[in-house]
Write a structure and sequence with these properties.
Rossmann fold; Helicase, Ruva Protein, domain 3; 5-stranded parallel sheet; alpha/beta; 51% helix
């Protein structure tokens, strides 16, 4: 697809020179002679690159206002500022507002074309990186054979084709964003935007701006997440962290299907599928007054619950094998040989869940150990501060032998059951017991069987 460059200059001669120069270099062009024409062109279709004169017809620095407007809509668009009245203050201001380059009139044609070439290269690089990141994220599978993950995969297939709002609950690092992306990818909106708004990372004073956008005094518009996600999907991550005052406004958007930008007078209608995620129990947040119950029921049309990794141990060996393969390829090394039955791994608490496991495997890939013993040492060193095995040993020192043995047996057999996803036959075979004997042992220890 040909690169399109917007040229904005109130001097017709310069505008024509720039137009011919850019066309001869093999790019498509659009031109604007003043501020209003430029604003109309930008709002009609965002250019790939813009060349803006600083001073047009609305003020001394209206080109800077256009620069800010472009950056508010798409920060990746390179903008080259040209001026016949250059000074240090103006140059600093342009760069501060996100200008890619700053050039004075009369400009050298070769130098300007070099700027344009670099701007296009920069644009392509960002586009390639985003495409790679998106493909990488979308290429990740929801790995696991636990009942929880199997159920979630089935839920994704059923709800993706609907337009229902979804609430995804689960601890940090468990894969909530991946699930949301999978739903979007399988939906009818899959060729439309997928926008993420993280409630925990926003400045408390910027929630409305980030959600609804703003109409500025100079006529430019800053678009919020709702408009950016129009026709697509908006993931509100950590929705529990959004202040009550903003929650009421989100509720109104869900009820009325419209909103106003900050400082705006016109209603904006959008068609957005909203998916929310939370690592906090929203019912508990409602009880203590941190979350609106009416909003909860609006958002929770369909609920997906992701269990922490330490409650689905049978998924750990599969995840290790999966991430070992992917990460080894990305580092261009032989597949990592990691013992999937390593007690340090299976008994670790995994407070960071799947993300923590993936980080461990990437750490091993970076260090590139040349033996299984060195891999094992990295695992032990990485996980030693939260090892279940060490905690059992430490706690066992303060109780009688019989109690310690029963405690160990109960914890050991519970862990093995989780490892084999509740399968009694596989568990019995692994621990070296007859199936009937294992049943009796589980009953005697008060361990509830699950399938």
């Amino acid at each position: 697809m040909a690169i399109e460059i917007l040229i904005v200059d109130d001097n017709a001669d310069i505008r024509n020179i720039l137009n011919e120069l850019i066309l001869d270099a093999g790019y498509k062009t659009r031109v604007a002679a003043n501020y209003d024409q430029a604003l109309a062109e930008i709002n009609k279709k965002m250019p790939d690159v813009a060349i803006l004169d600083v001073k047009l017809d609305k003020g001394d620095n209206d080109g800077i206002e256009l620069l800010s407007h472009i950056k508010s809509k798409n920060n990746d668009v390179p903008v080259i500022i040209i001026t016949g009245h250059a000074n240090v203050e103006l140059a600093v201001s342009a760069l501060k507002h996100g200008a890619f380059e700053f050039i004075e009139k009369p400009f050298d044609k070769t130098r300007l074309l070099n700027f344009v070439k670099r701007a296009v290269e920069n644009l392509n690089l960002k586009s390639q990186n985003k495409e790679y990141e998106t493909k990488l994220f979308y290429s990740y599978d929801l790995v696991g054979d636990s009942k929880n993950i199997s159920s979630i995969r089935d839920q994704i297939e059923k709800i993706s084709i609907t337009a229902s709002r979804i609430l995804i609950n689960g601890p940090s690092g468990s894969g909530k964003e991946l699930i949301a992306r999978k739903i979007h990818k399988r939906s009818k909106r899959n060729n439309k935007p997928f926008i993420i708004l993280n409630g925990a990372l926003l400045d408390s004073n910027k929630y409305e701006l980030e959600l609804f956008g703003e109409e500025k005094e100079n006529g430019s518009i800053s678009y919020g997440a709702l408009e950016k996600a129009n026709e697509g999907t908006l993931l509100i991550d950590q929705v529990s962290e959004i202040p009550l005052a903003i929650q009421s406004k989100i509720l109104r958007v869900l009820t009325d299907q419209k909103f106003k930008r900050l400082n705006g007078n016109s209603d904006i209608n959008v068609n957005v599928r909203i998916i929310c995620s939370s690592s906090k129990d929203l019912k508990e947040e409602i009880k203590i007054g941190n979350f609106r119950e009416d909003l909860y029921h609006r958002l929770n049309v369909f609920e997906i619950n992701v269990k922490p990794l330490n409650e689905r141990i049978s998924d750990i060996p599969l995840l290790i094998d999966y991430f070992s393969s992917i990460i080894s390829k990305s580092y261009n090394i032989s597949k990592l040989e990691i013992d999937t039955n390593d007690s340090y791994i299976l008994n670790h608490n995994w407070k960071g869940n799947v993300r923590e496991l993936r980080n461990l495997i990437e750490r091993i890939a970076i260090l590139q150990p040349d033996s299984k013993d060195k891999v094992s040492n990295i695992v032990k060193e990485s996980l030693k501060n939260d090892s279940y095995v060490e905690k059992v040993n430490e706690n066992s020192l303060s109780i009688p032998l019989k109690e310690a043995r029963e405690k160990f047996e109960k914890e050991y057999l519970t862990m093995q059951l989780k490892k084999f996803n509740g399968n009694i036959s596989k568990t019995a075979n692994f621990v070296g017991m007859e199936r009937s004997a294992l049943h009796r042992k589980l009953k005697g220890l008060g361990i509830k069987e699950f399938n």
